[in-house]
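Box S1 | Example of a co-folding query
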Amino acid sequence: MTLLKECVLATASKALFLDRDGVINVEKEYLYKIEEVAFVTGIFELCRHYQQQGYLIIIVTNQSGIARGMYTEEDFAQLSAWMQEAFAKEGITISAIYNCPHHPDFTGDCACRKPKPKMLLDAARQYGLDMAHSLLIGDSERDIEAAVAAGVGETVLLSSRVKSSKATRIVTELSCLY
Ligand SMILES: [Mg+2]
Ligand SMILES: [Zn+2]
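Box S1 (continued) | Returned holo structure for zinc ion
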């Protein structure tokens, strides 16, 4: 009994990593107002599908609007809390939201902005993730590059325009994935 429990606890979790803008909400430049959020079709179904299979859901997002002075860390935090609540109402737990508030032109180089893998690697350490069995969905090649650099096994580019990518799969709609 005790041994069994220890075995379960020792198993690393896998994650569904999601970019935010263009994957969770419809892309809108420098989004920070709750009333301007429109969820991407299928995002709740997708998350429920992976959550049921034991994936932790973790958001990794570049937020250069903070570096640019378009909105503040506090604005971002408020939108994030609202978004987590909206998912909770759909029965979905967003375990963590990692953000890079920098931009090289405004705040200099940083370690976290995608395509760098730091946000993903921080999550891997904090949640003890099995990256090879994790999945990332992004709408930009830099999301894919960050995931590849972090050792994420499966990468999906959500795009109706792009024809070639380092991603393991390109889909035009989230419904292709659940
Ligand atoms: Mg995006
Ligand atoms: Zn950064």
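The first helix runs from residue 2 to 10. Residues 19, 21-23, 139-140 surround magnesium ion (ligand 1) (CB under 6 Å).
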